[in-house]
Design goal:
- Strands 6, 7, 8, 9, 10 and 11 form a 6-stranded antiparallel sheet that branches. Strands 2-1-5-18-19 form a 5-stranded mixed sheet.
- It is of the alpha+beta class and 758 residues long.
- Helix 9 (219-235) packs antiparallel against helix 10.
- Strand 12 and strand 13 form a beta hairpin.
- The protein has 4 domains: 67-248, Orthogonal Bundle (Penicillin binding protein transpeptidase fold), CATH 1.10.3810.10; 274-291 and 605-648, no CATH class; 321-432, Nucleic acid-binding proteins (OB fold (Dihydrolipoamide Acetyltransferase, E2P), Beta Barrel); 440-597 and 652-753, DD-peptidase/beta-lactamase superfamily (Beta-lactamase).
Length: 758
């Protein structure tokens, strides 16, 4: 018996020794080339840049991943406990590896579950940190051993709170969100400290399989998983039974989050400047906090007003036809739904707020057409809601069959979004189309150059080219006020007589004769100078330019920032040069602010991850006088720009001349080419002035106008309409017809926003 005991003891000793030697060998074999983990002590995860509006609301994110680092001491204790209860209840008691949990998982995977399809996990939070940061997620025995070794090393090097902080800021929680801070905004649009118990439990339920518990695609599974986490909190004694029952009744109030890096013209404007200043890596991963001048309400109105104005122009030229047409065979086989679902994304893209959708014409009747949508719905498109699409030249009865045919893939829009609720509970649809024309709009503060809102086209999903900042186009008659300003500086007065009769100028040997004519083809004869501005007289303007010479006109164009090197040609006096909407609008601001040069800008201040100011538009006297040309502070230097306390804006026009030209711009609205919006002055008591602009062959249409509110604040609204590749807009498509509607729509929306009653 004793011999047997010693044999057993010897065998056990050998087994233990063998196991120990094996563990030591495995430790050295798998652990000798593991990466250095010391960097985790000071590691700060890369964060995307966040762009904010002027009231602090998040406007856009610029990132490859949604991430927002939050220190552990700033996280709600309930949220932290929810993750511990769901993921690693023994976190504060083990040394990086939970031996009991490993045995439990081994037993359950072997005997109780189909481990190949749904294995029970045994990884601690420390092991997940090791996996996420250091050893990767390859599913193999070697990786698990390396992970365990690295976990022991991490536990030896870092305290528990730091390990937990790394985990909660690195873990993937679905919808491209990494870490709890980003996930709180992604799912609930709120910071961590505002999360409810149910919301904390939901976030804690996600690490296992975020895609399986997507709250919009898999709401039932997400709710079950959330409630399981709540039960774990109750089992751990963290919440009461009353808290459990109350939290289980909480709905998952999750809405579709805006796509990361969602396209917008204003956002793209900021993105370009960030990359220009800091480079792409810092812009996307440096965690910059970018505070812009954009007013969220005005920005939204700019986008909507430009879209609506372009649609008004577009519909004047009728229906361009179906986007695509399915064959009779495809319609007969009743596979239109599958075809539509396959092609809908490639057909076109719309701004979401315009409520447009693509449909297929299934049948055409006298009073309506039956249309089908990609979700399988069928609706009626009334004959009365297609009237704009019928050709003007069409005589006799206007039947739906003239414009719609079975198999046509068409654009529709919900009428209820414009005229209130659907009639008798029925949603009404009208035939629509995406404008072929484009344009730009900007709202700018006249004293500072602050851009409150802007849009550079119908939809960035269709074209990312920004017509407000990138399009170099001829301003046409919108340039004329600066010709007349040059004349005022040379001693002319607003009542100086200029002959408005046909003019011919010999340009030089072999260059021919320049003989511009008025738009109306009529001449007024000798007329006061201000009439040339109000009535936009070409002959008067060229004659005046010929009298004073092109040099003073070149000079003023440079001083106000329209163009730096304008050719000394008479055609330039009629706006034959090229500039952008931003530059032209800022030049008009110099007229209405007393002659000060402005530099339009969208970025107000930029902070790094630690709150250090990298760039700031220096604040100054009266909170609106500053030099926006101040250089950016280095992205690597912790330097704060000095506060400016004096007006450093350059005086580029004498105040008395600027005031005279402002009066003439007012006359354009009262008596001249923009008198169609005179009612805005009279009805709402707003001081409004501006100038229309039209180029040869009606290729470009402009209106730059100012609004002075009762408070004294003055805004400039610049609008432009034209095709991406310049071509005629159509006969009679002047600035007064094509561009003023953009100004008019936006101004009326602003009046409604601020409840201005006159």
């Amino acid at each position: 018996m004793l011999k047997t005991f010693y044999r057993a003891l010897l065998g056990l000793s050998i087994a233990i020794s063998s196991f120990s030697i094996t563990c030591i060998l495995m430790f050295f074999y798998f652990g000798h080339d593991l990466p250095d983990h010391q960097f985790l002590k000071k590691y700060h995860p890369p964060e995307g840049s966040r762009i904010y509006t002027n009231n602090g609301d998040l406007y856009r994110e610029l990132a490859t991943e949604r991430r927002m680092f939050v220190p552990i001491h700033e996280m709600p204790p309930l949220l932290v406990k929810a993750f511990l209860a769901a993921e690693d209840k023994n976190f504060y008691y083990h040394a990086g590896i939970d031996a009991f949990g490993m045995v439990r998982a081994m037993v359950m995977n072997t005997f109780l579950t189909n481990w190949r399809e749904n294995p029970v996990g045994a990884s601690t939070i420390t092991q997940q940190v090791a996996k996420n940061f250091l050893v990767g997620n390859q599913r193999s025995f070697a990786r698990k051993v390396r992970e365990a070794i690295m976990s022991l090393r991490i536990e030896n090097a870092l305290d528990k709170d730091r390990i937990l902080e790394l985990y909660l800021n690195q873990i993937y929680l679905g919808m491209r969100s990494y870490g709890v801070g980003a996930a709180a905004y992604t799912y609930f649009q709120k910071p961590l400290h505002e999360l409810t118990l149910g919301e904390c439990a939901f976030l804690a339920s996600l690490p296992k399989a975020p895609a399986n518990y997507h709250p919009i695609r898999e709401p039932k599974r997400a709710l079950v998983r959330r409630n399981w986490t709540l039960k774990r909190l109750k089992e751990e004694g963290i919440i009461s039974n009353e808290d459990l029952l109350k939290a289980q009744q909480e709905p998952l109030n999750v809405s579709e989050v805006q796509p990361l890096n969602q396209a917008s013209y204003a956002g793209e404007l900021v993105r370009r400047e960030l990359i220009q200043r800091f480079g792409e890596s810092v812009s996307y991963k440096g965690g910059l906090m970018v505070h812009t001048t954009l007013d969220p309400d005005i920005q939204k109105l700019c986008e909507q007003s430009l879209q609506q104005g372009l649609e008004i122009y577009d519909k004047r030229y009728g229906y361009r036809g179906a986007l695509e047409r399915f064959t009779p065979a495809e319609m007969a086989q009743n596979i239109w739904l599958k075809l539509l679902q396959q092609k809908i994304r490639s057909l076109t893209a719309f701004p979401s707020e315009r409520k447009k959708d693509i449909a297929v014409v299934l049948n055409v009747f006298n009073d309506y057409a039956l249309i089908g949508f990609s979700d399988g719905r069928t609706e009626k498109l009334s004959h009365s809601n297609t009237q704009w699409a019928f050709p003007v030249k069409l005589n006799g009865a206007k039947q739906l069959g003239h414009i719609l045919h079975e198999g046509d893939v068409i654009v529709t829009r919900v009428l209820a979004t414009e005229c209130g609720e659907a009639i008798n509970g029925q949603t009404l649809y009208c035939l629509d189309q995406v404008p072929a024309v484009t344009g730009g709009i900007v709202v700018m503060d006249a004293e500072t150059g602050v851009v409150l809102g802007t849009s550079g086209g119908y939809s960035p999903e269709i074209s990312q080219f920004n017509c407000a900042t990138q399009a170099m186009r001829q301003p046409g008659s919108a340039f004329k006020p600066f010709v007349y300003l040059a004349a005022l500086e040379m001693g002319y007065t607003k009542n100086s007589i200029i002959d408005d009769s046909p003019i011919e100028v010999v340009l030089g040997k072999g260059l021919g004769i320049y003989a511009p004519r008025n738009y109306t083809r009529r001449s007024l004869g000798p007329s006061p100078l201000y009439v040339g501005v109000e009535q936009s007289r070409n002959q008067m303007t060229v004659r005046l330019a010929h009298q004073i010479g092109m040099k003073p006109i070149q000079d003023i164009a440079r001083r106000v920032g329209i163009m730096n090197a304008m050719p000394a040609q008479l055609a330039m006096s009629l706006g034959a040069g090229e500039t952008t909407l931003f530059k032209l609008t800022a030049a008009y601001a110099s007229i209405v602010n007393g002659g000060k040069r402005l530099y339009p800008h969208v970025i107000k201040r930029i902070h790094d991850q630690n709150g250090h100011i990298l760039f700031q538009t220096p604040p100054a006297f009266n909170d609106h006088l500053y030099d926006v040309r101040a250089p950016y502070v280095s992205a690597v230097a912790d330097i704060k720009p000095a506060v400016q306390t004096i007006d450093v804006r350059q005086q580029v026009i004498k105040p008395e001349y600027a005031k005279l030209m402002e009066e003439m711009l007012r006359g354009v609205v009262i008596r001249g080419t923009a008198k169609k919006i005179k009612y805005l002055r009279e009805t709402y008591g707003l001081d409004i002035g501006g100038k229309t602009g039209t180029t040869n062959d009606y290729k470009d249409a402009w209106f730059i106008g100012f609004i002075r509110f009762p408070s004294g604040k003055t805004w400039l609204i610049g609008s432009f309409v034209g095709f991406s590749t310049p071509k005629p807009l159509g006969d009679g498509e002047t600035g007064g017809r094509a561009a003023i509607p953009l100004f008019e729509i936006l101004t009326k929306n602003i009046i409604k926003l601020y409840n201005i009653n006159g």
